[in-house]
Design brief:
The protein is α+β, with helices and mostly antiparallel strands. The chain is 34% helix and 29% strand. It is built from seven helices and twelve strands. The strands form four sheets. A five-stranded antiparallel beta sheet has the order 11-10-9-8-12, with helices on both faces.
Length: 300
């Protein structure tokens, strides 16, 4: 009886041992010996810069995996793109993946999809003229320019009035004197929107005016305002340009050699134009579609 029970215990022990060995073999196979196919394009992302007919592209690796072996391998992957400049919508680019082959063999990875052809699409287009730009979007651009001035007004006081305590200089008002669309003569420079502002300071209770240009780059039909790259600079107008309000002459003098300049109507000019249209309409038709009521019909 004892021998039979001992034999059964040994059988159970050896069975459990064999099961454990089988499990270890399976783990070793699945995690260390089995060849795993890896799509090396799964984490590839394209980043375009520029506009239709003159864009560039870069391929980056975005893989983040909790598996350390997979992450280690993906960290060795980098991509080449041909062609990568002068791109237009509809062009075909070829992305090739390069990786550490020795590491792939060590981890039994079989990279696949190492070459991929992609059709370029979604690149923004330049505007032919300011007349193509929606007025509501122009209004957004002007608000971003005003925000830029508000955020940098303290810096401008310290820069321009170095002999005066900044606490003695107060920005009383900001006036947009000129707004314009600058269409670059060279595509790689991109188109811009500019605003010429008159900053009116009170310094020791005396009025002082300073002119300042705010430039918004990368104007195109993506309708995205590149707020990170908006910048400003001091505008040095001549005495004649200031006295006679020749802001257009100043803009042409500074930017005319590189850009085709189109002025943009300011809000007060738009209101005046709308009022003139309404006035002309009323002169042509005083009633302007309104009905006339005879008061006698209301009399008893």
């Amino acid at each position: 009886m004892m021998n039979k029970e001992a034999i059964q215990n040994k059988l159970v022990y050896f069975g459990a041992l064999l099961g454990l060995c089988a499990l270890l073999i399976l783990v070793a196979y699945f995690f260390f010996l089995r060849t795993v196919k890896v799509d090396v394009m799964s984490s590839m992302r394209l980043i375009y810069e520029g506009e239709n007919h003159d864009a560039s592209v870069e391929a980056i690796n975005t893989m983040e995996d909790i598996n350390q072996r997979i992450q280690e391998f993906y960290n060795t992957i980098h991509y080449t793109v041909e062609p990568d400049t002068g791109l237009s919508n509809g062009d075909t680019i070829t992305v090739k993946a390069q990786y550490d082959e020795a590491l792939a063999q060590q981890y039994h990875f079989e990279p696949e999809n190492t070459v991929k052809e992609i059709v370029v699409e979604g690149l923004p287009n330049r505007f032919d003229s300011v007349t193509q730009i929606d007025t509501a979007w122009i209004g957004q651009i002007e608000r971003e320019m005003e925000r830029y001035i508000e955020e940098h007004k303290g810096q401008e006081i310290e820069t321009e009035f170095t002999q005066i305590d900044p606490r003695e200089a107060t920005l009383e008002s900001t006036t947009l004197e000129y707004a314009g669309f600058l269409k670059s003569m060279e595509a790689q420079h991109g188109d811009r929107f500019i605003g010429l502002y008159r900053l009116s300071y009170a310094i020791e209770q005396k009025p002082v005016d300073m002119y300042y240009i705010v430039i918004v780059p990368n104007i195109n039909d993506s309708l995205q305002i590149d707020t990170q790259n908006i910048y400003g600079e001091r505008a040095y107008l001549s005495e004649e340009e200031i006295a006679q309000g020749k802001y257009t002459d100043y803009i042409a003098r500074i930017f005319g050699s590189q850009y085709v300049i189109e002025p943009v109507a300011l809000e007060n000019e738009k209101e005046e134009a709308d009022q003139q249209v309404l006035t002309r309409s009323l002169l042509r038709n005083p009633l302007n579609g309104r009905k006339i009521y005879d008061p006698s019909v209301f009399l008893c």
